[in-house]
Amino acid sequence: MNITQYECQACGWIYPPQSDNQSKQVAQFTELTDSFSCPLCGVGKSEFRPVNEANQQGESDAESAQSNRQQIIIIGAGLAGWSVVDAIRALNKEVAITLIAADNADRYHKPMLSAAFSQKKSAKDLIRFTGEEAANKADITLLANSKVLAIDSDNRKVLLDNAELSYDKLVMAIGAAPAIPPSIDAQNVWHINNIGSFNDIEQALSNSSTPKHIAIIGAGMVGTEVAEDLTKAGHKVSLLDMNKAPLALMLPEVASSKIKQAIIDQGINFIGNSRVDSVSSLPDGGYQVAVTDCGDSSQQTVEVDHILVSTGLKVEETLPQSAKLDFNRLCGISVQEATLQSSDPDIYAIGDCMSISGAPCRYVAPLRAQASTIAEHLLVHLEQHPAQADQAYEHKAYVHKPPMIRLKNKSISVSATGTPTADEQYGKWQVVSDTETEVGQELVLQQVAADGTVVATATVKSANK
């Protein structure tokens, strides 16, 4: 049976995966229930499109695009930066776009990074298109492996180590970097914030013929996902966190305790309520991690082969500060919600590096809508939008809605909507239901504010042992 593949427009995941495409058990996408959602980023069925349809969108408008090639510069070639390229090209095939990347600018499925070890996937397996292939396809100028030194916003210039570029509109898609605790030397640890860093640790593990003991510092979403993934890949994992349970800052104890038990049942050594004081190299290789209990101040050491840090993100300050933008290194570049413009109207920001009303926006699902808003707005201001001939054209403001949050662990299913937090000053958590199913236990929770508004929901499904 010939299966038509559909692509998630938020994160790029394809249904069915190539490995399942020939299976007779796979249903056509159109036969899936309306409740189907992307297993990587959680967006709904309506956000999928047949493969190659996106490439055809907007071609009918190509002839009407104006030839004036004003310069749009995008800094950052992750999922956010490429989403802006796609959104602009869907509307205008001619406007000049320069994409500046600190790496090769390869396009890949970022949500797959925390689920690739157990599937024996290398960085090469995750790449959909090389940067050069994607740039040629989109007809843009790509400056790969290039470092931006500063932004001269007064004169609208981007300063590189070997060049100076002028822009009419600038999009900041610089992402965020791992926030490594000060007690840890960054040279001693790995992270998987991008495909380059994933490749580094994947190569280190694949070059060894024996399983390794890996310490993961930080039991948030990514740390908890990677802990299970590395365990399923055959490695020993110790997961450390300053809180008593994984996801303890997001969910109440009734939920986080279930997650803790599920990962322990997987064979993961969870060391909670603990602070990493130091990391020292061992003479024969590997590291010794010194840990202090946050409650009784007792100490222990853990000897491991590798250390992976997943303790949150920060936005590098050099470029936003050089551009004189409203900025906070923990939250990112402050933007207007409706247009995603920064404090400088010619500079936009998207993805991990930006914040709305003081809150960072670090999820994949909203990127498509954010990119569309930026493309529409900057093209109108460059008089390059194909619909401007229609006097009824009106810009549709971006409205930020917290996406569904999904933990991609096999041992326990966790999904949440709204803005969940364990801090009950924002709302009390209530158990809606706690029921036995054929396959396990299902716990449904709501977080309710003082005025009765439901600010978040969470569903935790744990399988029978």
From TrEMBL:
It is an enzyme of class 1 (oxidoreductase). Its cofactor is FAD. InterPro entries: FAD-bd_OxRdtase, FAD/NAD-bd_sf, FAD/NAD-binding_dom, Rubredoxin-like_dom, Rubredoxin_dom. Its EC number is 1.18.1.1. Residues 3-51 form the Rubredoxin-like domain. Keywords: Electron transport, FAD, Flavoprotein, Iron, Metal-binding, Oxidoreductase, Transport. One of its GO terms (molecular function) is rubredoxin-NAD+ reductase activity. Belongs to the FAD-dependent oxidoreductase family. This is Rubredoxin-NAD(+) reductase. It comes from Psychrobacter pasteurii.
